[in-house]
Design brief:
The protein is of the alpha+beta class. The protein has one helix and three strands. The N and C termini lie far apart (36 Å).
Length: 61
């Protein structure tokens, strides 16, 4: 099981969940729904060919 850092924020009438390690974002009507959708999005991302658990390196200018 992998662990991620998540920021939850209320925005207008919905909640936003942002995963700090990979930048994946989800939203829902409440914190639980946004976290559930975020977990689903993370699992989907890593099941897709080309999805990686390694952080991307930024190009040097």
């Amino acid at each position: 099981m992998d662990f991620y850092s998540v920021v939850l924020k209320k925005s207008a009438s919905y909640w936003v969940a942002l995963c700090l390690e990979n930048g994946i974002v989800a939203q829902g009507d409440n914190p639980e729904q946004s976290m559930s959708k975020l977990q689903e999005a993370i699992e989907s991302f890593f099941s897709f060919p080309g999805g990686t658990r390694e952080p991307e390196k930024s190009p040097r200018c």
